Task: inverse folding
């Protein structure tokens, strides 16, 4: 049955049928990773873990943009905030992330001009309104966000705005999945792939990873029925021993994805290496400014290169992002580390695994 309205994707009777179908599979132990933080939050919000068979373990993955941002990038944003030449503009989630010795929030409290924006276009407007200041935009995010930042830079270029620049910490999803599969100790039986990223990338973007590692992979939306359907499809593939790449979100995701958005993204950025918190450098997993747009690169323009960074002692964010640990395995969880006093980014971000556990699982 084709559903039309959001409320239908939260229908209790349909959910019960899907849950029953999952139980009826009588599956042995499997470990599924919900790659993205939006899935993690939805899974907790709708109590999905509690209705699954005990044999199915759900693990959070590396798809929370704030959580995977490397400490060096956090320290770089903070370094810019320390200069009174700059207005630093950022998505709100980044504000409280602890750097090696400060945070954007602390710098703001000490008088730095740090402003929360809801899009890169807001940041560009701040640059236009403040020609006497340099405006830095903290460019984090995955395939969902990168096209809008690229579109902003196209406008900045066209309007010849001289006081706007970015520091890019963009990440691409499929190379991270390949890196996880190559990591010792990571044992996964399936990927629940992010719906919103896939709207841009299309199903085809995951094909090479799927073919190389032959792991069940299903793209799913974020409503409870979407997630339950995705889990049912993954569990069925696992039970039948027929790994496939399937799309449980066809109302939004096509094979090719959003071709126009990808064109815009590729006008401004090119594929480059990126450093992920906990995972390290993954080749070809980032999007860096191409030659034509290099003038918007804040670090090369203002000669900033942070060398000494240190990650918070005792924080297990890196291992959590790889599915090697859960927040409850971290000794600091809910003791030294809480949403009011976060030690690591996974407790800060609204998509972070530790924040989700803290809010819904205690
Ligand atoms: S609970 Fe805090 S310290 Fe522990 S992994 Fe999560 S964010 Fe890091």
Result:
């Amino acid at each position: 049955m084709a559903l039309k309205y959001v409320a239908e994707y939260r229908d209790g009777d349909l959910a019960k049928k899907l849950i029953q179908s999952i139980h009826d599979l009588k599956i042995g132990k499997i470990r599924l990773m919900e790659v993205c933080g939006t899935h993690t939050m939805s899974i907790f919000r709708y109590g999905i873990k509690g209705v699954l068979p005990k044999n199915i373990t759900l693990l959070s993955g590396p798809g929370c943009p704030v959580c995977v941002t490397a400490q060096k990038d956090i320290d770089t944003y903070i370094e810019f905030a320390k200069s009174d030449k700059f207005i630093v503009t950022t998505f709100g989630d980044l504000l409280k992330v602890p750097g090696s010795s400060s945070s954007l929030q602390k710098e703001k409290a000490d008088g730095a001009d740090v402003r929360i924006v809801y899009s890169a276009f807001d940041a560009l407007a701040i640059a236009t309104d403040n020609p006497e200041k340099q405006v830095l935009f903290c460019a984090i995010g995955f395939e969902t966000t990168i096209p809008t930042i690229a579109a902003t830079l196209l406008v900045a270029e066209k309007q010849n705005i001289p006081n706007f620049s970015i520091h890019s910490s963009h990440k691409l999803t499929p190379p991270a999945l390949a890196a996880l599969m190559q990591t010792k100790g990571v044992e996964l039986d399936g990927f629940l792939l992010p719906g919103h990223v896939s709207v841009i990338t299309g199903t085809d973007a995951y094909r090479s990873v799927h073919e190389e590692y032959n792991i069940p992979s299903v793209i799913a939306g974020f409503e409870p029925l979407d997630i339950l359907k995705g889990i049912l499809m993954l569990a069925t593939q696992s039970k039948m021993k027929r790994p496939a790449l399937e799309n449980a979100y066809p109302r939004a995701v096509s094979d090719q994805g959003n071709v126009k958005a990808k064109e815009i993204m590729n006008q401004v950025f090119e594929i480059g290496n990126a450093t992920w918190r906990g995972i390290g450098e993954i080749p070809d997993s980032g999007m860096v400014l191409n030659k034509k747009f290099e003038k918007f690169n804040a670090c090369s323009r203002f000669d900033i290169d942070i060398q000494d960074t240190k990650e918070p002692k005792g924080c297990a964010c890196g291992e959590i992002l790889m599915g090697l640990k859960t927040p409850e395995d971290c000794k600091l969880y809910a003791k030294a580390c809480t949403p009011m006093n976060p030690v690591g980014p996974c407790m800060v971000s609204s998509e972070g695994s530790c924040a989700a556990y803290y809010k819904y699982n205690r």
User: Anything to note?
Assistant: Residues 315-317, 320, 327, 330, 332-333, 337, 343-344, 346-347, 354 surround iron/sulfur cluster (CB under 6 Å). The chain has a mean pLDDT of 95.
